[in-house]
């Protein structure tokens, strides 16, 4: 199979699922300075995201802690370089490569902006972005500021989709 044909097929499949494919290598946006992973622990709710084929549904949230309950999916996050603790890699399954998890910005108590990107064949990259909050809602002012940061990082904020966090309170019991 010709590499050009493979590339076109991958882009077509990605467009169908709304993935965010781009020509060239991943950008290298700046990350949160003096990131404190302990302050970052706890529950984060997804407010907006770039489309991700692996993430469907509503009421998306993540809880980061040092010990996970046995009946949940477990992920392992690792700081790759102690001088840049906001650049992590996360893995959920053995045999599957870890994914980048870059905290671009957070105030720890209300919002977090996370970016991830993977290069393929040095020809194109797929990126992911999440706007997270400690509650199921975030003010439009803060969302606007986070959109500005994503734009500065080279992310097309017009592709962000709003996550459905309505009717989720019943799930927390």
UniProtKB/TrEMBL annotation:
Its main location: secreted. GO terms for cellular component: cytoplasm; extracellular region. Residues 64-164 form the Lipocalin/cytosolic fatty-acid binding domain. Residues 1-18 form the signal peptide. Keywords: Disulfide bond, Glycoprotein, Lipid-binding, Pyrrolidone carboxylic acid, Secreted, Signal, Transport. SUPFAM superfamilies: Lipocalins (SSF50814). This is Apolipoprotein D. One of its GO terms (molecular function) is lipid binding. One of its GO terms (biological process) is lipid transport.
